[in-house]
Amino acid sequence: MKKVKVLSKNNMVFEETEIPKPNETRNILVKTKRVGICGSDRHILHGQNPLATLPRVVGHEVVGVVEEIYGESTLKVGQHVVIEPISSCGKCYACKQNRPNVCKELVVFGVHEDGGLQEYFTINEKQLHPVNNDIPFEKSVLIEPLTIGAQATYRANIQVGDTILIQGAGPIGLCILKHAKLTECTVIISDLDQTRLDYAKQQGADITINIKNSDLISEINKITNDEGVNVSIDAVCTPKTFELGTQVTSPAGRVVVLGFAEQPAQISQLPITKNELTILGSRLQTHQFKGVIKHLENGAFDNFDLVTQQFELNDVIDAFKFIDENPTEVRKAIIKF
Ligand SMILES: NC(=O)c1ccc[n+]([C@@H]2O[C@H](COP(=O)([O-])OP(=O)(O)OC[C@H]3O[C@@H](n4cnc5c(N)ncnc54)[C@H](O)[C@@H]3O)[C@@H](O)[C@H]2O)c1
Ligand SMILES: [Zn+2]
Ligand SMILES: [Zn+2]
């Protein structure tokens, strides 16, 4: 079987290996069907992810089919499955708080252990969720990024009637939008790319702000009668957007942060104390897969056609290059097996 490995910075190669055998700990052999390419996969390839270890098979947005089972299982051969890319120790404080996504010993599939850019892999069934076999793979490959949106909106505790700002209409901002709109609320989304904003509007955003030609703070003040948004979620993740998030959020509001940047932002205490802001991190997801799959199977994301390009596994190196060079043409590119 074929796999693609990042050996070192900007060096990705094909390898030919034996198909692995399922065993007691990794009891399911999965045949890979589609893998979504995420910004973090590109960061690993370009040497910009300090958490990843090399050499690494990347890919954590993965759907496949159960090919072989070791021993007893609730799954059946032929079942379509999506991979929950985290495994945790079960013993640390976070795990005991039922928040395994921030486990001290967290292992992320495709980051700390080999991921989905290979024709077959073994995994424990705890990390597999069945998806109705009628759902096209082009749709089910979006489940993982949708769980990131589910987590961010869950952390934000969105209430009916809230006004929400999402900064950034990239794939993550859009996955947050799709979840925010499951509650009756007003969603404002900002970006500097008009094509992305137009797509966000088509996907349910109530108001779009192009920050190329308008000032975010004054626009938000206008829209909210100077109150600010009740929730701001940062899906751009720069020090500047983090600062803006705290500046445009109303008293008693929530500011959700998704970034991994190490550079500090300049945030003063005044708006946080004066407005009793709650600032929350949102990392990957906890227990969001089942809910997202249910919404998907019930048609809640039927018009969410995020996938814009499909590449064959043999063309994966070109695919990464294409995404880097054509940011406005690519919403989500996926690899087809
Ligand atoms: N915490 C998590 O679990 C998690 C998971 C996945 C991704 N992320 C992070 O989420 C962020 C977004 O991911 P993505 O894949 O959507 O990225 P992306 O780069 O595809 O999209 C970012 C969007 O922000 C826009 N943008 C840039 N500067 C802006 C600004 N100042 N104001 C408004 N919009 C601006 C860009 O035009 C683009 O459309 C990344 O930083 C990524 O690291 C976090
Ligand atoms: Zn991803
Ligand atoms: Zn733990």
Automatic annotation (TrEMBL):
The keyword Aminoacyl-tRNA synthetase does not apply. Residues 171-297 form the Alcohol dehydrogenase-like C-terminal domain. It comes from the Bacteria. GO terms for molecular function: oxidoreductase activity. Residues 27-132 form the Alcohol dehydrogenase-like N-terminal domain. PANTHER family: L-THREONINE 3-DEHYDROGENASE. This is Zinc-binding alcohol dehydrogenase family protein.
